[in-house]
Specification:
single chain, Rossmann fold, binds flavin mononucleotide
Protein backbone atom coordinates (compact mmCIF):
# COMPACT_ATOMS: atom_id res chain seq x y z
CA UNK A 1 0.00 0.00 0.00
CA UNK A 2 1.51 3.29 -1.08
CA UNK A 3 0.25 6.66 0.14
CA UNK A 4 1.18 9.98 -1.43
CA UNK A 5 0.94 12.96 0.91
CA UNK A 6 0.25 16.54 -0.12
CA UNK A 7 1.07 19.33 2.34
CA UNK A 8 -0.66 22.70 2.12
CA UNK A 9 2.27 24.71 3.51
CA UNK A 10 5.49 25.42 1.60
CA UNK A 11 7.50 26.56 4.64
CA UNK A 12 10.63 24.55 5.34
CA UNK A 13 9.76 24.65 9.06
CA UNK A 14 6.05 24.04 8.50
CA UNK A 15 4.26 22.41 11.44
CA UNK A 16 1.91 20.71 8.98
CA UNK A 17 4.80 19.18 7.07
CA UNK A 18 6.47 18.13 10.36
CA UNK A 19 3.31 16.19 11.25
CA UNK A 20 3.36 14.38 7.91
CA UNK A 21 7.07 13.58 8.33
CA UNK A 22 6.19 12.23 11.80
CA UNK A 23 3.40 10.16 10.25
CA UNK A 24 5.96 8.59 7.90
CA UNK A 25 7.59 7.01 10.97
CA UNK A 26 4.27 5.59 12.21
CA UNK A 27 3.23 3.44 9.25
CA UNK A 28 2.07 -0.12 9.59
CA UNK A 29 3.81 -3.03 7.83
CA UNK A 30 3.77 -2.91 4.01
CA UNK A 31 2.75 0.76 3.98
CA UNK A 32 4.93 3.45 2.39
CA UNK A 33 4.38 7.19 2.20
CA UNK A 34 6.08 9.87 0.14
CA UNK A 35 5.40 13.60 0.05
CA UNK A 36 4.52 15.09 -3.35
CA UNK A 37 6.13 18.52 -3.65
CA UNK A 38 3.78 21.23 -4.91
CA UNK A 39 5.93 24.35 -4.47
CA UNK A 40 7.14 24.41 -8.08
CA UNK A 41 3.69 24.13 -9.69
CA UNK A 42 2.81 27.20 -11.75
CA UNK A 43 -0.45 28.98 -11.04
CA UNK A 44 -3.24 27.04 -12.68
CA UNK A 45 -3.95 28.16 -16.23
CA UNK A 46 -6.06 25.93 -18.44
CA UNK A 47 -4.24 27.23 -21.52
CA UNK A 48 -1.07 25.45 -20.34
CA UNK A 49 -2.86 22.11 -20.14
CA UNK A 50 -4.31 20.68 -23.37
CA UNK A 51 -6.37 17.48 -23.25
CA UNK A 52 -3.43 15.46 -24.63
CA UNK A 53 -1.07 17.01 -22.00
CA UNK A 54 1.45 17.75 -24.78
CA UNK A 55 2.45 21.14 -23.35
CA UNK A 56 1.52 20.56 -19.71
CA UNK A 57 4.29 21.70 -17.31
CA UNK A 58 6.61 18.89 -16.14
CA UNK A 59 5.91 19.61 -12.46
CA UNK A 60 2.19 19.05 -13.09
CA UNK A 61 2.77 15.77 -14.95
CA UNK A 62 4.99 14.64 -12.05
CA UNK A 63 2.25 15.37 -9.49
CA UNK A 64 -0.39 13.55 -11.55
CA UNK A 65 1.90 10.55 -11.94
CA UNK A 66 2.65 10.40 -8.20
CA UNK A 67 -1.07 10.42 -7.44
CA UNK A 68 -1.89 7.81 -10.12
CA UNK A 69 0.79 5.47 -8.75
CA UNK A 70 -0.49 5.78 -5.16
CA UNK A 71 -3.21 3.62 -3.63
CA UNK A 72 -4.37 6.50 -1.42
CA UNK A 73 -3.77 10.19 -0.78
CA UNK A 74 -3.17 11.96 2.52
CA UNK A 75 -3.72 15.72 2.60
CA UNK A 76 -2.51 17.86 5.49
CA UNK A 77 -3.54 21.48 5.49
CA UNK A 78 -2.99 24.51 7.67
CA UNK A 79 -5.82 27.01 7.98
CA UNK A 80 -5.30 30.36 6.26
CA UNK A 81 -8.06 32.90 6.71
CA UNK A 82 -10.58 30.21 7.60
CA UNK A 83 -9.78 28.17 4.46
CA UNK A 84 -7.11 25.89 2.98
CA UNK A 85 -4.14 27.82 1.50
CA UNK A 86 -4.20 28.74 -2.19
CA UNK A 87 -1.16 26.55 -2.91
CA UNK A 88 -3.18 23.48 -1.98
CA UNK A 89 -6.20 24.49 -4.07
CA UNK A 90 -3.81 25.18 -6.96
CA UNK A 91 -2.35 21.67 -6.68
CA UNK A 92 -5.80 20.05 -6.53
CA UNK A 93 -6.98 22.05 -9.56
CA UNK A 94 -3.97 20.86 -11.57
CA UNK A 95 -4.34 17.26 -10.41
CA UNK A 96 -8.06 17.21 -11.25
CA UNK A 97 -7.43 17.79 -14.97
CA UNK A 98 -7.53 17.06 -17.92
CA UNK A 99 -11.31 16.82 -17.88
CA UNK A 100 -12.44 13.21 -17.37
CA UNK A 101 -8.82 12.07 -16.92
CA UNK A 102 -8.40 13.31 -13.35
CA UNK A 103 -5.73 11.61 -11.27
CA UNK A 104 -7.88 12.32 -8.21
CA UNK A 105 -11.18 10.80 -9.31
CA UNK A 106 -12.17 7.70 -7.29
CA UNK A 107 -8.91 7.88 -5.30
CA UNK A 108 -9.25 7.18 -1.56
CA UNK A 109 -8.21 10.21 0.48
CA UNK A 110 -7.98 11.30 4.11
CA UNK A 111 -7.41 14.89 5.16
CA UNK A 112 -6.44 16.53 8.43
CA UNK A 113 -5.95 20.16 9.34
CA UNK A 114 -3.73 22.25 11.58
CA UNK A 115 -4.65 25.63 13.03
CA UNK A 116 -3.41 28.25 15.40
CA UNK A 117 -6.67 29.89 16.39
CA UNK A 118 -9.54 29.06 18.70
CA UNK A 119 -11.08 26.62 16.21
CA UNK A 120 -7.75 25.04 15.21
CA UNK A 121 -8.29 24.47 11.52
CA UNK A 122 -11.86 23.12 11.67
CA UNK A 123 -13.10 25.56 9.02
CA UNK A 124 -10.25 24.72 6.63
CA UNK A 125 -11.01 21.01 6.98
CA UNK A 126 -14.73 21.45 6.26
CA UNK A 127 -13.90 23.51 3.18
CA UNK A 128 -11.23 21.06 2.04
CA UNK A 129 -13.64 18.14 2.31
CA UNK A 130 -16.07 20.02 0.07
CA UNK A 131 -13.27 20.60 -2.44
CA UNK A 132 -12.32 16.91 -2.40
CA UNK A 133 -15.93 15.98 -3.13
CA UNK A 134 -15.74 18.29 -6.15
CA UNK A 135 -12.60 16.40 -7.20
CA UNK A 136 -14.66 13.16 -7.04
CA UNK A 137 -12.33 11.66 -4.44
CA UNK A 138 -13.43 8.97 -1.99
CA UNK A 139 -13.12 10.76 1.34
CA UNK A 140 -12.58 8.71 4.48
CA UNK A 141 -15.64 9.61 6.60
CA UNK A 142 -14.09 9.00 10.03
CA UNK A 143 -11.99 9.55 12.08
CA UNK A 144 -11.62 13.29 11.70
CA UNK A 145 -8.38 14.90 12.81
CA UNK A 146 -7.85 18.56 13.61
CA UNK A 147 -4.57 19.46 15.30
CA UNK A 148 -4.18 22.48 17.57
CA UNK A 149 -0.80 24.13 17.13
CA UNK A 150 -0.68 25.59 20.63
CA UNK A 151 -1.45 22.22 22.25
CA UNK A 152 0.89 20.21 20.01
CA UNK A 153 4.07 22.24 19.49
CA UNK A 154 6.40 23.98 21.94
CA UNK A 155 9.20 26.13 20.46
CA UNK A 156 8.55 24.60 17.03
CA UNK A 157 9.02 21.02 18.29
CA UNK A 158 6.37 18.31 18.59
CA UNK A 159 5.57 18.26 22.31
CA UNK A 160 2.32 16.31 22.56
CA UNK A 161 2.81 12.56 22.34
CA UNK A 162 -0.93 11.93 22.00
CA UNK A 163 -0.73 13.38 18.52
CA UNK A 164 1.48 10.48 17.45
CA UNK A 165 -1.24 8.03 18.50
CA UNK A 166 -3.81 10.15 16.64
CA UNK A 167 -1.66 10.16 13.50
CA UNK A 168 -0.97 6.43 13.71
CA UNK A 169 -4.69 5.66 14.05
CA UNK A 170 -5.55 8.10 11.26
CA UNK A 171 -3.15 6.52 8.75
CA UNK A 172 -4.21 3.01 9.78
CA UNK A 173 -7.84 4.00 9.13
CA UNK A 174 -6.86 5.36 5.70
CA UNK A 175 -5.21 2.04 4.86
CA UNK A 176 -8.42 0.17 5.81
CA UNK A 177 -10.50 2.69 3.82
CA UNK A 178 -8.29 2.36 0.72
CA UNK A 179 -8.46 -1.45 0.89
CA UNK A 180 -12.27 -1.32 1.04
C1 LIG B 1 -2.06 34.05 5.90
C2 LIG B 1 -2.33 33.27 7.18
C3 LIG B 1 -3.63 33.16 7.63
C4 LIG B 1 -3.91 32.40 8.78
N1 LIG B 1 -5.21 32.23 9.15
C5 LIG B 1 -5.50 31.37 10.17
C6 LIG B 1 -6.86 31.05 10.48
O1 LIG B 1 -7.79 31.54 9.86
N2 LIG B 1 -7.09 30.16 11.47
C7 LIG B 1 -6.08 29.56 12.18
O2 LIG B 1 -6.35 28.74 13.05
N3 LIG B 1 -4.77 29.85 11.90
C8 LIG B 1 -4.48 30.73 10.92
N4 LIG B 1 -3.17 31.01 10.60
C9 LIG B 1 -2.13 30.36 11.39
C10 LIG B 1 -1.62 29.12 10.67
O3 LIG B 1 -2.58 28.09 10.68
C11 LIG B 1 -0.35 28.70 11.38
O4 LIG B 1 0.59 29.74 11.19
C12 LIG B 1 0.22 27.42 10.87
O5 LIG B 1 1.35 27.14 11.65
C13 LIG B 1 0.69 27.51 9.45
O6 LIG B 1 1.05 26.23 9.04
P1 LIG B 1 2.55 25.77 8.86
O7 LIG B 1 3.25 25.87 10.18
O8 LIG B 1 2.40 24.35 8.42
O9 LIG B 1 3.19 26.65 7.82
C14 LIG B 1 -2.87 31.78 9.51
C15 LIG B 1 -1.54 31.95 9.03
C16 LIG B 1 -1.28 32.68 7.90
C17 LIG B 1 0.15 32.78 7.40
Amino acid sequence: MHIVAIVGSLRAKSHTRALVVEAQTLLGPDVTMTIAEIGDLPLFNEELDPADESTTPASVLRLRQQIREADAVLIATPEYNHAPPGVLKNALDWASRPFMKSALAKKPVAAFSVGGGKFSGVRALVMLRTMLTGCRMLIMPQPELVISLSETFKDGELADHKVRDNLREFIAALVVWAKR
